[in-house]
Amino acid sequence: MSQALKIGIVGGSGWLGGAIAGSLLEAGVVRREDLVLSYRSRKPDRFHDAAWTADNRMLVDRSDVVVVSVRPADWPALSLDCAGRLVISVMAGIRLEHLAARLGTTRVVRSLPNAAAAAGASYTPWVAGGEVGDGDRAIVRTILDACGTQDEFASERDIDYLTGLSGSGPAFPALLAAAMVDDAVARGFPPDIARRAVDAVLVGTGRLVERGGGHPRDVVQAFLDHRGTTAAAIDAMRARGFEAAVAAGLAAAFDKAASMGGISIQG
């Protein structure tokens, strides 16, 4: 990708827009002077060498690639003419056809980074519209790789499912971690000790699974085979419906993503 590529982030003042901006700068994908960020009410005190604006029209005029990072609820009020630009949406549920019609360009990509983009560790699925060529795809990969890892998919239904699995995904280990911390505190452990122990479990597990290179189930089975304290805990969690609760959560996220896009999830 050209070093002189100019990137604009609509909603650059938000947590996800800001996370993407930070990742792009840290990875050297864009120069600060070639980055334009928009805000709605108050200019953030960060990315001082980038261009900040409350005028999205100016942002588009100065950009080769426009990243749309606003809440889906704010999408209906957004008015942009992105003709001739490559647009990458990071909004959950907004379909390619709606992006193209509203933004005035057929070079549209629908993607879904997650909160780990702030640490350069997001998994981002994406799907491209029919007019997105190989050159545009290379740009999309470079931008999304700066935020972590990415995969292109052929179907928007895949993105709707992955909205829950990977888009919402960081919330699920965090939910488990919160429950573990709360349980330890309830048993009399100091909150800082409980937090430190659980944080180490989360980080260590990620590295263990990544290093193993196999299925996470293999890690679980290794503990089950020992039939010790961990196996007792897993058996108790499964007896309370652990896997069923996870499946129900993912199904609810899929339904929500599909309904946001105004599509049927049947078939």
What does this structure look like?
- By secondary structure, the protein is of the alpha/beta class.
- The protein has two domains: 7-156, 3-Layer(aba) Sandwich (Rossmann fold), CATH 3.40.50.720; 171-260, ProC C-terminal domain-like fold (Orthogonal Bundle), CATH 1.10.3730.10.
- The protein is built from ten helices and eight strands.
- Strands 3-2-1-4-5-6-7-8 form an eight-stranded mixed beta sheet, sandwiched between helices.
- Helix 6 crosses helix 7 (191-212).
- The two termini are 39 Å apart.
Topology:
Blueprint: E1 7-10, H1 15-27, E2 35-38, E3 51-53, H2 56-61, E4 65-68, E5 86-89, H3 96-103, E6 108-111, E7 122-128, H4 134-146, E8 148-152, H5 156-167, H6 171-186, H7 191-212, H8 216-226, H9 229-239, H10 242-260
Parallel strand pairs: 1-2, 1-4, 2-3, 4-5, 5-6, 7-8
Antiparallel strand pairs: 6-7
CATH class placement of the largest domain:
Alpha Beta
Please, what is the average pLDDT?
A: 91
Give the end-to-end Cα distance, rounded to a whole number of Å. Answer: 39 Å
CATH superfamily of the largest domain: NAD(P)-binding Rossmann-like Domain
Order of helices and strands: EHEEHEEHEEHEHHHHHH
Number of domain modules = 2
The total of helices stands at 10
CATH architecture of the largest domain: 3-Layer(aba) Sandwich
The largest sheet, given as strand count, sense and whether it forms a barrel, is: 8 strands, mixed
Unreliable segments of 5+ consecutive residues: 263-267
**What's the total count of β strands?**
8
CATH topology of the largest domain: Rossmann fold
Percent of residues in beta strands: 5-15%
Which structural class fits the helix and strand makeup? alpha/beta
Overall morphology: elongated
Integer-rounded radius of gyration: 21 Å
Strand order of the largest sheet: 3-2-1-4-5-6-7-8
Helix content: 40-55%
